[in-house]
Design goal:
single chain; 346 residues; alpha/beta; seven-stranded parallel β-sheet; two-stranded parallel sheet
């Protein structure tokens, strides 16, 4: 295989770390970009990054997507074959507090990535979207063939905008783009603002956990290694125009342009209370639960239809939460120096 150079934005992030690591094992040359912002613990990002920097085919670029000149210079110098764009301001709840961060990173940053691809011959752009784009949709499972134009958070609105921006560039400039809607990603090295991280820490420390929507949430929890595998496989399948696309009845998931959208989820929604039970089993302690109403911008359930992903990319995420949560708890206790009652009894 000729040497293929791939830019991974957000390489020090949770999904970016796993994706970069998998690309390196597949023999790709990876340039990882991250601004190492303080949205959450920077030391965790640096610890992920340190592992990547041990690999000979990895180089790190410390810069911000919003810096138009720096991004333009990077693309012009490196002439990437492909781009995996995972950097974003994440989090539904934080978007209620700091909305401008989402416009800067997710809209302006993505525009700079698209412009870099346009002017430098990038053969394929794969970018992260989210199940949050389905917003007010209640038809289950969520399908990429259904309209997703009723987001209920600014975060979701910016990610839906990214999909539309990508379609515009695919149409005007024939840049192949593939958008991946991630469903509730979890696993070792995860983000501290995610439920699994907060639940595990609080249960271990004997503190109550906040359970929103009074525990009635259902989520299509997806293990991070399954996500990374899907991202890498999608990057290797360069988006093509859909020969069957009909402008009289347009399918949102494809186009007459080289544009595709896929869900990546476990295809098996789990009750939040069951998720908490698994955490309790792994740490050997019961949680003190503080039941609360559903938060603004949140949705009661997610469930991914992944038929298109399986058909086109040849991959089906399948890690059960009992396995994935155990791996997270073991990592968490090792990394932060906790001991568990379950661990002592095993």
């Amino acid at each position: 295989m000729p040497e293929i150079k791939i830019l991974v934005t957000g390489a020090a992030g949770f999904i970016g770390f796993y994706t970069s690591r998998l690309l390196l094992t597949r023999g790709y040359q990876v340039v990882g970009l991250d601004n190492l912002n303080d949205y959450y613990d920077v030391s965790l990002k640096k610890a992920r990054l340190a592992q990547l920097q041990e690999q000979p085919n990895f180089r790190f670029e410390h810069r911000d997507l919003v810096d138009r000149e720096a991004m333009g210079a990077l693309f012009a110098r490196e002439r990437f074959n492909r781009v995996v764009h995972l950097a974003a301001q994440a989090g539904v709840r934080y978007s209620l507090e700091v909305p401008h961060a989402y416009i800067d990173s997710n809209i302006t940053g993505t525009l700079n990535v698209l412009e870099g691809c346009r002017h430098n011959g990038v053969e394929h752009l794969v970018y992260a979207s989210t199940s949050s784009v389905y917003g007010a949709n209640t038809k289950m499972p969520f399908s990429v063939h259904d309209i997703a134009d009723h987001p209920v958070s600014l975060y979701a609105a910016t990610k839906r905008a990214n999909e539309l921006m990508a379609h515009n560039y695919s149409t005007l400039f024939r840049i192949p783009t593939t958008g991946l809607r991630f469903f509730t990603v979890y696993g070792p090295w995860g983000r501290p603002d995610m439920a699994l991280f907060m639940f595990t820490r609080n249960i271990l420390e004997g503190k109550p956990i906040d359970v929103f929507n009074n525990g009635h949430h259902k989520r299509d929890f997806t293990f991070v290694e399954d996500i990374a595998e899907g991202v890498v496989r999608a990057s290797e399948r360069i988006a093509q125009p859909d020969p069957g696309w009909n402008s009289d009845a347009p399918d949102p998931s494809s186009s007459s342009a080289p544009y595709r959208l896929y869900n990546i989820g476990n295809n098996e929604p789990v009750q939040l209370m069951r998720y908490i039970e698994v955490i309790e089993e792994c740490v050997g302690r019961k949680a003190q639960k503080n039941f609360l109403p559903m938060q603004k911008g949140d949705v009661p359930a997610t469930f991914a239809d992944i038929d298109d992903l399986v058909r086109d990319v040849g991959y089906r995420p399948a890690t059960p939460i009992e396995v994935g949560v155990r791996r997270f708890v073991d990592w968490f206790c090792s990394y932060y120096g906790y001991s568990t009652d379950a661990g002592r009894s095993r």
